[in-house]
Amino acid sequence: MSTDSLTSQKCVPCEGDAKPLTPQQFEPHLQQVADWKVVGAVKIEKEFKFKDFKEALNFVDKVGEIAEHEGHHPDIFLHGWNKVKITLSTHAIKGLSLNDFILAAKIDQLLK
């Protein structure tokens, strides 16, 4: 599966009986999203650095638009005037789902 494959998919709501992905299940997806790091096997995060505050804030706005469109919302932390840390996890299942990797790929696509 390629990054294009992730970006062509749409996030879907998790059903109540859905289970979080295991490390063996999420590893192939992780390889498709550059520089995203797994934290505690329940979330992925990545830090982005921009030339100034305005560029960082513009990025946050674009991430918000994608998140709303996908119905999957990351934690967004704008700090140090030019850095943005994005953390993705599927809260409903208390772990990682395919949605997290779809959104990560779409966020990365913003900078291409």
Automatic annotation (TrEMBL):
- What Pfam families does the entry give? Pterin_4a
In alphabetical order, the GO MF annotations are: 4-alpha-hydroxytetrahydrobiopterin dehydratase activity
Q: Which UniProt keywords apply?
A: Lyase
Q: What is its EC number?
A: 4.2.1.96
Query: Enzyme class, one word?
Result: lyase
Instruction: Classify the source by domain of life.
Output: Bacteria
Q: By its UniProt entry, which InterPro entries does this protein fall under?
A: PCD_sf (IPR036428), Pterin_deHydtase (IPR001533)
Family the UniProt entry places it in: Belongs to the pterin-4-alpha-carbinolamine dehydratase family.
The entry's protein name is: Putative pterin-4-alpha-carbinolamine dehydratase
* Species this chain originates from: Candidatus Roizmanbacteria bacterium RIFCSPLOWO2_01_FULL_40_42
